Amino acid sequence: MAWALKLPLTDEVIESGLVQDFDASLSGIGQELGAGAYSMSDVLALPIFKQEESNLPPDSENKILPFQYVLCAATSPAVKLHDETLTYLNQGQSYEIRMLDNRKMGELPEITGKLVKSIIRVVFHDRRLQYTEHQQLEGWRWNRPGDRILDLDIPMSVGMIDPRANPTQLNTVEFLWDPSKRTSVFIQVHCISTEFTMRKHGGEKGVPFRIQIDTFKENEGGEYTEHQHSASCQVKVFKPKGADRKQKTDREKMEKRAPQEKEKYQPSYETTILTECSPWPEITYVNNSPSPGFNTTHNSFPAAEGNGSPTHQPEPVVQVADNLLPTTTPQDAQQWLHRNRFSPFCRLFTNFSGADLLKLTREDVIQICGPADGIRLFNALKGRVVRPRLTIYVCQESQQAREQQQKHENGDSVASNTLFVYHAIYLEELTASELTEKIAQLFNISPRQISQIFKQGPTGIHVLVSDEMIQNFQDEVCFVLDTMKAETNDGYHIILK
Predict the structure, then answer these.
(1) How many CB atoms sit inside 10 A of residue 164's CB?
(2) What own/partner pairs with CB < 8 Å and gap ≥ 24 does 147-150 have?
(3) Quick check: helix, strand or coil at residue 160?
(4) Angle ∠(478,479,484) on CA atoms, nearest 5
(5) What average pLDDT score do residues 410-429 get?
(6) Picking from 21-30, 77-86, 239-248, 337-346, which range would have the lowest pLDDT averaged per residue?
């Protein structure tokens, strides 16, 4: 009975002991997880985290890049910290990009004293638009025939060599430059960001672009294909003076924010530094074929080396006219349009064969292409050429012709079956140097081998041919060419009889 009375007391003791132990356990947990127990710096200082940090790649910020590109346009102040900078540009305005050599002494010696090639392009920042870039650019070309997205302002640029622009790549320009010399390139962007928005109801936000620069060095084959450096920046393009208004609006908004809020945003910098990026994936940028966008090539007649002599008259070089034929396929018709500088209208005539294009009337092409390009396309389709300013016919005097001429002067009978072949020479500049080049081309010799050109005057005198004399030649006049060895050199004198 006594045992039975003591049992509840024993249970109470046990129960109170358990409660105390449980409270002590909770209090201990609270002390371990208290605010003062551990800090984040202590956690990161643990050996396991230090080991993981040692396996990370080195910080790219400490990497010295060979080149640096600086866009001379202010960045927006309404960009949060750790976000990429954003720069506003005006449509069609020239902006300077400074091309800087950032190499240390002795770094990349293979490009020291040599030129490098840089390609500047305007591309989409939005990855969704990058996937449809070709369709987007073709749509822009359709709405803006004859215009380019990106141009170079050549008169303002410094240190730029051999600038080129491919007519089929509206958003790309390229040039050569010497890293050891000051180089500043001025670019113009002609498209605005709102031209590529999905819905246009007014007041919509424009899509951001990227200005990317890829630089290559020359390989052993003389082609600029070895990639050296790439960098880009984010921009938005507004209508003229729109970028200035947007910059002012962003600045005023930031001034109204509380100091604590301002600390979350980047300051506005006077220039934009392009940050390193991957090279543009397209392979078309290594194409070294001449692009007719900026540079013009002056063709000269080939200088034939060897024992060329005016007494030898080969077949003249015949230039095949690039005329469109009715049998031309649609694919060949597209190439013909490109060759004749009608690239902006290739999409309009995608499915046109040669026969389809030749059936177009003058009014049709003017309505499709506009007055200027329409008349030019119509003349090209009809194969119309510009009439030369002066045409002369020349025939080389042979030994047989001399003998027959001598017999004729002596009163002897001359057979009339002798055939004299004349060649036409077309002159545009009406200069003696142009006539020299045309005669040299006819005889397949170098113009340097022709010392002087004379015209036989009254009583057989030799009159030196000058620019003024050629300008007074009658159109379609005929001459017989005679040659005479020059006394001072190995050249020849040409006599027009």
Answers:
(1) 21
(2) 147/190, 147/344, 148/190, 148/293, 149/122, 149/189, 149/190, 149/191, 150/120, 150/121, 150/122, 150/187, 150/188, 150/189, 150/190
(3) coil
(4) 175
(5) 71
(6) 21-30
Let me know: does 77 contact 100? Beta carbons within 8 Å.
no
**CB-based contact 338:309 (threshold 8 Å):** no
Strand order in the sheet with 95-101: 150-152, 183-189, 95-101, 67-71, 272-273
pLDDT of residue 297: 35
When mean pLDDT is compared across 354-368, 408-422, 452-466, the lowest value belongs to 408-422
Tokens of 452: 């002087």
Residue with tokens 């938005």: 236
Residues contacting 110, CB < 8 A, separation 6+: 217
Model confidence band, residue 62 (pLDDT cutoffs 50, 70, 90): low
Beta strands in 306-433 (DSSP E): 390-396, 423-427
DSSP 8-state assignment for residue 266 = P
**Between 120 and 38, whose confidence is greater?**
120
Contact 288, 223 (CB under 8 A): yes
**What is residue 458's three-state secondary structure?**
helix
Q: Considering only CA atoms, which of 207, 225, 203 is closest in space to residue 279?
A: 225
Tokens, residue 279: 């090279």
Residue by residue, DSSP assigns 72-94 as -SPBPS--BTTSPPEEEEETT--
Nearest to 430 by CA among 386, 474, 399: 474
What are the tokens at 32? 């371990």
- Greatest mean pLDDT range, 108-117, 240-249, 278-287: 240-249
292 vs 338: CA distance, rounded Å: 11
Residue 382, number of CB atoms within 10 A of its CB: 11
Which pLDDT does position 11 carry in this prediction? 53
Closest CA to 381 of 320, 319, 328, 318: 328
Q: What is the mean pLDDT of residues 67-76?
A: 93
CA dist list (Å): 126 to 193, 274, 279: 12, 18, 17
The count of other CB atoms within 10 Å of the CB of residue 97 is 24
Contact (CB, 8 A) for 172 and 120: yes
Helix axes 371-381, 362-369, angle to 10 degrees: 140
Given a contact cutoff of 8 angstroms between Cβ atoms, the answer to whether 393 and 475 are in contact is no
How far is residue 273's CA from residue 231's CA, in Å, rounded to a whole number?
Answer: 9
